[in-house]
């Protein structure tokens, strides 16, 4: 059916974040980027159809663009957010 990314209210630099991913096509795989540079992340199963992606937004990234790009089965989702100052 689909894959969706559910963000937090505010994305802050220097802070750990967790976004939920809804996927009814199996485990999502993808990448987290800050201004095009990969950020280490981890995807954890919560319960059908919810998954959680966790990552640390680097300190000093305020004003830069955070991009989450994931796919699961035949579905794909990409969303971008501006990183706020602490």
Give the helices and strands, then pairings.
Elements: E1 3-6, E2 16-23, E3 29-34, E4 37-38, E5 41-47, E6 50-56, E7 65-72, E8 75-82
Antiparallel strand pairs: 1-2, 2-6, 3-4, 3-7, 5-6, 7-8
Structure summary:
The chain is mainly beta. Helix content is 0%, strand content 58%.
Descriptive key words:
single chain, 86 residues, mainly beta, four-stranded antiparallel beta sheet
Description:
A 4-stranded antiparallel β-sheet has the order 1-2-6-5, with no helix packed on it. A 4-stranded antiparallel β-sheet has the order 4-3-7-8, with no helix packed on it. Helix content is 0%, strand content 58%. It is elongated, with a radius of gyration of 12 Å. The chain has strands at 3-6, 16-23, 29-34, 37-38, 41-47, 50-56, 65-72, 75-82.
